[in-house]
Write a structure and sequence with these properties.
This protein is mainly alpha-helical. Strand 1 and strand 2 form a beta hairpin. Helix 3 crosses helix 4 and helix 4 runs antiparallel to helix 7. The longest helix is centred in the middle third of the chain and has 60 residues. The radius of gyration is 39 Å and the shape is rod-shaped. The protein starts with a helix and ends with a helix.
Length: 185
Amino acid sequence: MTYPASARRRFVNGGVLAKYLESASVSDMPTEVIYARVPTALKEACDAYAAQRGATLTGAVVDLLDRGLSAVSDERSVAELEKNLAEVAAAKNVAEAALHAAQTELGAVKAFAQRAGREVGTCPKCNEPITGYDLLGAGACPRCSQALSSLIAPAAASPTLDQRELMFLVGALGAVLGIAYLASK
């Protein structure tokens, strides 16, 4: 049996097992003798394995030993693959959570952008319509540059500002700020 290069690389520091696998071809390699005392039950199991496959006891022991060495070498690789899988799954979960947070934040920003574009009143100086952005973003009328900060908290009810629209706009702004704060944590 000849081992692929990937299996041969699994053995650390070119040890005895690595040298064995580098030259392992059971049919054409020189053989060595291994004397080992084994429990009776193990010997009987090897005999049964040989009989099942129509092989000699030596052939069965070589096959079982070869399979055992392969399993031991694969054990390390399987553990590494499981570790890599766990790391990738954790990274995927983090990415999915970040995506969900970004989608939520984007939804709030879109809602705010829709509200910011709506007309919330008129300029007290030129009587032209002003939007939520003009009021809260720019802070001035886009036509006459009149400061609009006095409309946010007027001394008396302002006839030039729709209070209901302003409340919706401030609520949307609060939602955006809250989501941005939570996303930064």
